[in-house]
Structure to design on (425 residues):
């Protein structure tokens, strides 16, 4: 009987082997445990427990099922063991291990770093992780709930909290251009319909400009802008940025981010403008929206595969995948970018600052429960305004509290490390 092909290798962008097939046909994962765990959901496993992992999602390529007849003939004639193609990923495995080590201990969540010009994913870490080398049966190797198999970067659907104010701001620039020059007043609480909106931590912001409202993340200002423009304009802006889109990217599976079709309740619309209500978003999608701001309004297509190599080390031709598309005008992107720079310089994300670099960002502290004793999810999304280091990042720490206290400092460490590793090209 003809033996099936041995699976090809999975390596990181620097050539580090993350998965290979041994002579006895067993699959072996990185010998460095910290790397193996950090990339577990990205690489996947022999049991197919991580459905979004490369081992499962790109099994056809790794098995050589996409190879040409010439390759197969060459294998037969040369008597070499038939093996599939090797896949070089865009991730930097050592950066992933560093992120995993710096992530708040015992917390769940996700971090993704991408090149906002090319769309290459440079790091993708989801907590909890699991050990693909310890899987002897489908039941072993992850925590009891199996949530370690979930790649939260791609599959985690979270309320975005105030990171969504980037979308509300874009919708405001488009639909309420005069709003930029107004003065806003925050008394800490305002009634909208049958509900009321408060500012995070009981803050009272007083009189301020739109820039200051964004910098301080004033809920009342963004709630009132959402109500003023109406639900359909806010929903249209969110959809243009990819909400309710069934993303079909070649390299990875990304779950859908959602916003309702209509938001008739005024109180719910107010909270939606703040990033609450019925909104759900994936961390990678927030990194893509942030990348669009950094990239003059053009959202890149996320890339996870740098190269596929066939028999004899010949690279396979893969059609270039262009940008996902323009999701805001260049002037809107520049405007939002300037606002995001101020959030890090003087506002809620000051702990995301990296010395000698301009970091642009937005924090979020998203409520996941009506029970106020449950800590909020801590968010930070942002990017380096630096063509030599075009990195965008999204961080979410479940029940991590305030985004500015938990997610922003983690983002600063990760960006610093990425700059030091000088990941380009």
């Amino acid at each position: 009987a003809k033996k099936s092909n041995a699976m090809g290798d999975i390596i990181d962008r620097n050539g580090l082997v993350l998965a290979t097939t041994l002579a006895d046909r067993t699959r072996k994962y990185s010998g460095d445990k910290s790397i193996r765990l950090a990339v577990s959901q990205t690489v996947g496993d022999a049991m197919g427990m991580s459905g979004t992992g490369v081992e499962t999602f790109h099994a056809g390529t790794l098995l050589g099922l996409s190879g040409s007849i010439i390759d197969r003939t060459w294998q037969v004639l040369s008597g070499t063991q038939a093996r599939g193609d090797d896949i070089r990923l865009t991730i930097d495995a050592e950066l992933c291990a560093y992120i995993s080590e710096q992530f708040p201990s015992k917390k769940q969540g996700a971090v993704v770093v991408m090149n906002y010009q090319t769309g290459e994913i440079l790091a993708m870490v989801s907590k909890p992780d699991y050990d693909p080398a310890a899987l002897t049966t489908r039941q072993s190797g992850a925590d009891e709930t199996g949530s370690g198999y979930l790649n939260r970067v791609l599959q985690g659907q979270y309320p975005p909290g105030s990171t969504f104010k980037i979308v509300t701001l874009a919708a405001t620039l488009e639909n309420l251009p005069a709003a930029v020059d107004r003065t806003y007043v925050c008394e800490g609480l305002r009634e909208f319909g049958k509900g009321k909106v408060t500012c995070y931590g009981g803050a009272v912001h007083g009189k301020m400009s739109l820039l200051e409202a964004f910098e301080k993340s004033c809920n009342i200002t963004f709630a009132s802008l959402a109500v003023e423009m109406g639900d359909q304009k806010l929903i249209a802006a969110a959809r243009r940025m990819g909400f309710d889109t069934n993303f079909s990217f070649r390299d990875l599976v990304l779950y859908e981010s959602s916003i309702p079709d209509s938001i008739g309740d005024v109180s719910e619309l107010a909270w939606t403008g703040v990033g609450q209500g019925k909104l759900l978003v994936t961390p990678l999608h927030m990194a893509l929206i942030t990348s669009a701001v950094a990239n003059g309004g053009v959202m890149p297509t996320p890339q996870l595969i740098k190269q596929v190599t066939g028999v004899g080390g010949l690279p396979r031709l893969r059609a270039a995948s262009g940008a996902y598309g323009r999701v805001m005008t260049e002037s809107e992107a520049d405007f939002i970018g300037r606002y995001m720079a101020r959030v890090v310089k003087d506002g809620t994300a000051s702990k995301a600052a990296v010395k000698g670099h301009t970091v642009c960002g937005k924090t979020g502290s998203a409520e996941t429960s009506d029970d106020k004793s449950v800590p909020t999810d801590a968010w930070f999304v942002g990017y380096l305004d630096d063509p030599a280091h075009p990195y965008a990042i999204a961080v979410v720490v479940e029940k991590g509290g305030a985004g500015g206290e938990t997610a922003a400092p983690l983002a600063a460490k990760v960006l610093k490390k990425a700059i030091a590793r000088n990941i380009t090209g």
